[in-house]
Amino acid sequence: MSKIKIAELFYSIQGEGRYMGVPSVFLRTFGCNFTCDGFGMNRGEKSNERNVIAINAETYKQYGDLPLVSTGCDSYASWDPRFKHLSPVLSTDSIADAITDTLPYKEWRYEHLVITGGEPLLGWQRAYPDLLDHPKMQGLKEITFETNGTQKLTPEFKEYLENWKLKDSKSWCESITFSVSAKLPCSGEKWEDAICPDVVREYEDIGYTYLKFVVATEQDVADAECAIGAFRNAGFQGSIYLMPVGGVESVYTLNNRRVAELAMEKGLRYSDRLQVPLFKNEWGT
Ligand code: SF4
Q1: How do residues 244-261 score in pLDDT, each as one tens digit?
Q2: How many A from CA of 75 to the centre of ligand 1?
Q3: Does the Cβ of 148 fall within 6 Å of ligand 1?
Q4: Is the peptide bond prior to 188 cis by the omega test (within 30 degrees of 0)?
């Protein structure tokens, strides 16, 4: 039986992208290949807010007690090794049990599963088939992988997903989604590491794939347009969203209207972050 290190597992409303408003179980895996220390900072500066929190990391016993941050990655505890004691390694059996327990009717009906992170397409790809084949997961019809778009699918996992989507042939084209939040320079990550058009193009062979760029300024939008050109040149055909920076409400409300206006100007889609106005972006939402 496979095991996965789980940062969070909760039931909420999807706040972003094409499934905005849909009741969803979020499975947040531990580990990421990035740190995204640039969010909310001036260009070239890195957030030290996370480091301040990390001084007392050992004193936190559960995710719900962790502070929210206005700069850097808002899900920092899902990959920062100083918080790894909060994320148990669980068997796929116990994950399937825990998922079922969060569902309102204790079985899958119209809810969708979001596998997020951290970066969920790191080594856990080899464990997902065990989880998705579990008897308690058989009513599940729709999955989104929320990824930063840098990790290739392994040939084994690609083949598995091809077969998984075919099990419900009426809606196969809708059943698997890749929500790709490709990181722009405002994240603090390097362009050559973060913008991987060939990787994302391949996701389109398996499921509905869209790009979601987190932006705050016109410079960020210009960077997004440059990245869009690279993705389109590689043959990417999916939808493209702009989404405001804002892990806390004060930052989100500064950005959201302007980002919506910029999305309209550029003919791009706008994604809200409903979890911020609805739930203050608290852990577990
Ligand atoms: S890729 Fe996502 S989870 Fe990883 S550090 Fe960046 S924002 Fe956080």
Answers
A1: 987 778 778 888 999 999
A2: 7
A3: yes
A4: no
